[in-house]
Amino acid sequence: MTQDDADGSVPALRTDRLGRRYGKMWGLRDCTLEVPAGAVAAVVGPNGAGKTTLLEMIIGLLEPTEGRVDVFGQTSRADTAGSLGRVGYVAQDHPLYRDFTVADMFHLGRAMNPSWDQNLADVRMDALSIPVNRKIRRLSGGQQAQVSLTMALAKRAPLLVLDEPVSSLDPVARLDFMRDVMAIAADQALTFLISSHVVAELERYCDWLIILSAGHVQLAGPADDLLAAHQLLTVPRATLDADLPGTAIQRTDSDRHSTVLVRAGADQFAGYGRPGWQADPVSFEQLIMAYLQRRPSPRSYDNPAPAAERPGTPAKEVTR
Amino acid sequence: MTWVTWRQHRSQAMACLALLAALAVYAIIEGTSMRTAFSNDNLAGCLARSQGTGCPAAVSDFTGAFGSAVNIAFWSVCLIIPGLIGVLVGGSLVARELEYGTWRLAWSQTVPRTRWLGVKLALVTGGLIAVGAAMTAVITWYRAPMDRVVGHLYQNVYDYEGLVLTAYILCAFGFAVLAGLLIRRSIPAMIAAFIPWLAIRLVIEFVFRDHFMAPLTATGTCVQNSPQPHCGMGIGFVPPDTGHIGDLVLSVNGNLVTYQPASRFWPFQFIEAGIFVALTAAALGATIWLLHRRAAWTA
Amino acid sequence: MFRFRLDGSSGVPPYLQLVHQVRQALLLGYLQEGDRLPTVKDVAADLVINPNTVVKAYRQLEHEGLTGGRPGQGTFITATSSPVPPAAHQDLRASLEAWLRAAGEAGLDDEAVTALIAVARQDLKQDLKKERV
Description:
The complex is a heterotrimer.
Chain A: E1 13-22, E2 25-35, E3 40-44, H1 51-59, E4 66-71, E5 74-75, H2 81-84, E6 87-90, H3 102-112, H4 118-127, H5 141-154, E7 159-163, H6 171-187, E8 191-196, H7 202-205, E9 208-213, E10 216-222, H8 223-228, E11 230-236, E12 247-253, E13 257-263, H9 266-271, E14 278-281, H10 284-293
Parallel strand pairs in A: 3-8, 3-9, 6-7, 7-8
Antiparallel strand pairs in A: 1-2, 1-4, 4-5, 9-10, 11-13, 11-14, 12-13
Helix pairs in contact in A: 4-5, 5-6
Chain B: H1 2-8, H2 10-40, H3 43-50, H4 56-66, H5 72-100, H6 103-106, H7 113-150, H8 155-158, H9 164-183, H10 186-208, E1 216-219, E2 248-253, E3 256-260, H11 265-293
Chain C: H1 14-28, E1 36-37, H2 40-47, H3 51-63, E2 67-70, E3 74-77, H4 86-106, H5 110-132
Antiparallel strand pairs in C: 1-3, 2-3
Helix pairs in contact in C: 1-3, 2-3
C-alpha cells in the first residue's frame, strides 16, 4: 500500500533523542527522526554507524539508554510482548533453526506469536514453490531469506524491519527478494525499514532516507525532498564556501574549478546563478556517499551544521 | 513455548531414551542373573540368620561375580555420566542461540526472553528429573540383591541410588546453562561447566560425605587374623566390623570402629542432593537474572 | 500489457523515466487511447522499484492530461496523438537534422553536441526564469 492510502496521522516510527551507550562508548546518540506509515525507508551507513543499534531498539531487543522510540504512537518498552508484537524482524543473514523444517519454523511462529497468520505463510510458500517439509539447511540462500521474510510477514506486524536483507544473497536471489518486498509494499498497509551498506540500488526501493554515521543521524527525510534540496555546483576555484547558497557538504577542488555539493532551501537555489557557475541535480548515490564521506556531525541534522569545512583549501586534483 | 522447547530438545530427549533403554537392557540381564545366583545360593536366609558370617564362601562368590563396581575404569565412566548428561543438555540451551545468531529470531517473537528462558528451563529441568529418576529406579532395581548383601552406603552404590544421581545431573545442567550464557559458545561452555562440577563432585564425595553427620563409634565385633572368616572394611567383607550389613566403616583403630550406620543412607542422600540442588537453583537463577539484565548481545 | 524499463545509470529519477516512456510510446504510436497501463503493484514488482514512485509517475501523467484513472479499474490512456501537431514535428525534425549536419562539419563529435545542447538548455532555462521574475 502506498503512502497515499496509509493513515498519515500516526507515523509508523518516531524517535526522540534516542541513544544507547555500551560501556563508555555511545553506539547511537541524539537520534530524532520520524518515518510515516506506508513508507519504505532506508537506513544507510557504514558498519559501526549505529544501524543495528537503532534497529534493535525499534524492534524491542535493546533497551535505550536515553530518549525513547514510538511505534505507531505507542512507546516501545524493550523485551515486552506489546512492543515485540508490533514489529516484524528479519535479522542480518536471516537466522533460522537449520535443523527445523519450514513447517517447524511456522509452528514456532504460531506458538510464539498470537497474531500469527498461518494461511499467509502457506500461500507464500506455495507461490514460491518452497516445500514445507524440507529442512532449512537444505534450502538455498534465497529460499531461506524468503522463509525468514515470511516469518516476519505472517506475524502481521504493521512495521517490518529488515537488517541488510540481501547482502548475503546472489544477484538473482537479491532481485527476487526485493521484488517480493516491493509487491508487498504495493499491496498492504506495511511500513518497511531496510538497513543497508550497499548504496547503489537504494534509489529504486526507498522513498524515505536515513543516513547514519558515527552513531549520529546525518540526514533524514523523504527521498524526493532531500534530492531536491541538494545540488552539485561547479564553480570557479576561488569561490569561497561562504559565497555559496546553503551549506557545503562536500567539496572537490581542481586547478581552476571546484565541485561542491550543497544543501539549501528551494528559495536559496532560485536566487543565485552567476556566469561560470553550473548547477546539476545530485544522484541518490552521490548524495549518500557525500554525507558518509564527510566528517560526521555530532549534532542532530536538524541543527544547522557549522559553516563550510575547509574554506580556501589548497588545490587538490580531481580524483573522480 | 512447550512445543518449541520439545522440538529444540527432541534429539537430546531421544538420546536419553536410548541411553535409558541400553541401561535397562544391561540392568535386566545383570539383575536377572544376580537374582538367580542369589536364590540359588540361598543367600537370603543366610543373611537373615547370621548377617552373612554363616556362608562366607557363597557371599564371596556372589560379590566376586557381581561386584564390578570396584573396577576403576568402570567407576570413572559411571562417575562422569551424570555430569555429561547435564552439560550436554545445558551447554547448548542458551549458548547455541548466541553462537548461531538465532537469538535475534527467538527473542524478537512476541515472547519476552525471560519467559522464553523460564519455560525452557522448567520443561528441560522436568525432563532431566524424569531421566534421573528413571535411571535411579532402573539401577536400584537391578542392584537390589547386591544391596541386601553389602548395603548401599558404599561409594559406588550410593552415587546411583536415592536422590543424588538426579541432583548431579541437574547441577551439571545448571552450571552449563550459566556458562553458555556467559561464554556464548556451546562446547567451551560444556567444558567450563564440567570441570567445576567434577571438582565439587569429587570434593564432596571424598572429603565431606563421610562426615555429613558425626560418625559413630563402636567396639569391633570381628577379630582380626583369626582362623574364622573375618570381617572388615570394603565391599568384599561381609558383614563389616560393626557386624551390621550396610554400615560404612570409616576407620578401625585397634578395637575401635568408626562408622556411619546404614540407617543414615536417606539423610545423607537428602543432604548431598540438597547441596547440588541448591547449586542448580543458584546457577539457573543467576542465568535468568543475567539474561534479564543484559540487553546487548553480540555473538 | 505495456512493460516499462528502468535505466539505473542514466541519472534520471525513476519516476521521470516512467513518464518519458509513456510520452515516447504515445509519440511513436505504441500506446493508444483506451490502453490500460499496468497496475502500480505490477510495475513495482516488474521493475523492482518503490510503488510510490509508480504512483508519482501515474499522477504526473494524469496531471499532464495523458492518462485518467477509473476507480477500481486502473489507469487508462486518454490522449491519443502527440501534443505537437505532425507538421510542426516534421519541420523541427528537418531543422534538427540540418543543424546536426552542420555541427558534424564544424568538427563536433556526439559528446560535444550533447554538452552543447545541455549548456544551451540550461542557459535558456535560466533566461526564462529571469524573464518570469
